[in-house]
Amino acid sequence: MERTKKEHSLAYLNDSEIGTFSMNHHLPCYVRLMCKQDVAQVTEIDREAFPTMWPPVNFQRELQNQLAHYIVVYRGEETIDEPGMEAILEEKGFSHLVSRVRQLFSNNCLISGKPLSSSKQYIIGFAGFWIMAEEAHIINLAVRELHRCQGIGELLLISIIDLATEMKASISTLEVRSFNFAARRLYSKYGFTHVGLRRGYYTDNGEDGVLMSTENIASALFQARLQQLKKAHSRKWGIALYRIAP
Q1: Mind telling me the catalytic residues?
Q2: CATH ID of 13-238, from 3.30.70.100, 3.40.630.30, 3.40.50.300, 3.30.750.24
Q3: Which of 32, 53, 189, 210 is a Cys-bridge partner for 245, taking CB atoms 3.0 to 4.6 Å apart?
Q4: Please, where are the H alpha helices in 29-167?
């Protein structure tokens, strides 16, 4: 990680991020492991969510880091368009057409019947953690601004915990900004408790970092609670399957 003081990025969540908006009328979401074809989109999401954090994360290097593990979430057949098309539209003041262009590419894919390659999938969020000994330390979790308020951040958190459990981690930890109350409530909901405070941890504004940790994520009690939360999330947002694709 190239940040000074090993700063970690957890996106600000507002109250509506964990509110009552339904995902049912959108394309289904899928979670898979991050690959090198995702680096440009993930970097874009990272800079949108954390514009003041410096230096930015080198995700190419992170993919080569044996301690680091990243996942991405994408929607059904929604695709990225040909290189440069979005930039041209936005530069000419037609940003409202970007989503329409993506839909056209999506329709073309549906007509052809060919599966999307990872290089064409439109990434809407990502998360990552480092696993050290038996600790999974969450270092990134971010969602594109246009796709917030739809349960995506919570889906990423569930998936991270599942992956950490599969990798035999015993606990999960993270840092979060002290004034990011909505995020802290979400993490508390999933069993993270306040275990420490790092004064002036975030160098962009001197905000304190709250260190949070779970108990044993592999325990029967934790897993039973996680299954209840998955069911509640599924009912609320219309997600039928919680599984990370390779």
Answers
A1: 175, 187
A2: 3.40.630.30
A3: 32
A4: 39-49, 59-64, 85-91, 98-112, 152-166
